[in-house]
Structures are given as C-alpha cells and as structure tokens.
Amino acid sequence: SQQGEEDPQALSIQEGENATMNCSYKTSINNLQWYRQNSGRGLVHLILIRSNEREKHSGRLRVTLDTSKKSSSLLITASRAADTASYFCATVVTGTASKLTFGTGTRLQVTL
Amino acid sequence: EAGVAQSPRYKIIEKRQSVAFWCNPISGHATLYWYQQILGQGPKLLIQFQNNGVVDDSQLPKDRFSAERLKGVDSTLKIQPAKLEDSAVYLCASSLVPWTMNTGELFFGEGSRLTVL
Questions:
Q1: Residue of A nearest to B30 (CA)
Q2: Nearest CA in chain B to A94
Q3: N or C: where does chain B have the smaller number of CB atoms within 10 Å of the terminal CB?
Q4: Distance from CA of B23 to the nearest CA of A (A)
C-alpha cells in the first residue's frame, strides 16, 4: 500500500511560475524525501528532511514538513521546461530502518 | 562514479514465460532494493537486501518472484511464471546507509521495462 498521497495528481504551469506539490502520509516517520522521475528514466533524489526539521532549501527547491498534520510540501520556484517530470515523496517509517515507501506522485508539466 | 546498472532495459514475453533482471549497485553500497513501478503509480518495494541478507520481502509475491544477491554485490530478480499484471518497470536502487540507520538517499538505475503479452 502507498504510504504517501500526493496532491495534485497533475499540474501544468508556465515557465517562470512556481509549482507547489503536497504530500500526506499516514504513520510516524523518521524522514521524508522527494524524488524526481523524468519520463522513462529512474528516480533521482532531490532533498531529504528529517522529522525534527520544519523547512529545508536546496537551490530552487523548498520543502516543508508538518509532522502534526502528517504532511509535506515541495515548492519549485521559477520553474523551467526542464523541470517537467513526475515528483514523488517517500517516507522512512519509524522502526522500519531504511525502508523507503513512495507516494503516488505528481506529474508536473512546465510549458514555454 | 558509475551509477546503478540494470539490464535488460526492455523485455517482452508471453504470459507463463520466465524472465530475469540483473542489477549491479554502486560500489560499496551495502543496501540494495528492487521496486516495481506500474504505469502511473509510485514505486512499490518488492525486496530489500542488506549485503547478501534479506531485510524486507513482505511485498514480494513469493509464489512467482524470487531474488538473490550472491556475494553481497550483484542481484537478480526472477519472475516465473509471468502474469499480465506483472507488466511494469522494475527499478533497482542502492544505498550507502546500512539498515540500522534511518537516514540516507537511494540511487536508482534506469529500470527494466517488462511487457507481458
């Protein structure tokens, strides 16, 4: 079963706009990670946020984590056509060592 | 640094036939994962190895799927006999973090796309 549910399932924006994706999960976690997947390719790690962190930045990416609401958001600022991909949140559930469970994904389309 | 290598990239078989996928993780990565990704869905963990031991195989359909990681390096995933619903991309990933630690990122291969007719 999927631990995380992403919202929206699909998002279409224009280049230069910001894109926000949300992830909700069900059980207590050690950390939450975001991955990108270009069409027909493997997943690439973007950013990791630990359960005791509330916000993290990496370049044009900003991730927030609210453990009380069991939710996270990924913000991509000033989006580019090259950001077109599927984005997945993944969680390491407390007590499951390094088992990473993925959500359902958000398909982002950035148009020129 | 070489990434995670997988082969074959594409495979088409008839139902009830068998298929095997191979994965070579990043050198020195102790943990290896096999995920199944059905079109339009997120990856689902099939099996996780720590060196050559199985950490988690709770979602592996053991009546038809098997996996091994001999010598704690390369791994093979086998499906026998295949069903139509096995059509998916099989992703291999590896991690530097041992299973006793609760952090770390996964490095994925390009995947092996299986079509069962």
A1: A98
A2: B102
A3: N
A4: 13
A42-58 residue pLDDT tens = 999 999 999 999 999 99
Can you tell me the distance from the alpha carbon of B63 to that of B20, in angstroms, rounded to the nearest whole number? 15
Measured over the CA atoms of residue B90, residue B58, residue B28 and residue A47, the dihedral's sign is: positive
- Give the residue from B44, B37, B35, B40 showing the smallest Cα distance to A9: B40
DSSP A39-94: TTS-EEEEEEEETT-SEEEETTEEEEEETTTTEEEEEE-S--GGG-EEEEEEEEET
Q: Give the residue with greater pLDDT, B98 vs A105.
A: A105
Cβ burial of B20 (10 Å; 0-12, 13-18, 19+) is middle
Residues 6+ apart with CB under 8 A from A51: A28, A29, A30, A31, A32, A65, A67, A94
What 8-state DSSP symbol labels residue B40? T
| N residues, chain A | 112
Confidence of residue B103 (pLDDT cuts 50, 70, 90): low
Tokens of B56: 């988690």
The closest CB to that of B48, out of A45, A88, A99, belongs to: A99
Percent above pLDDT 70 for chain B: 94
> d(Cα B2, Cα B30) in Å, to the nearest integer?
15
**Closest-CA residue to A90 (of B91, B7, B79, B55):** B91
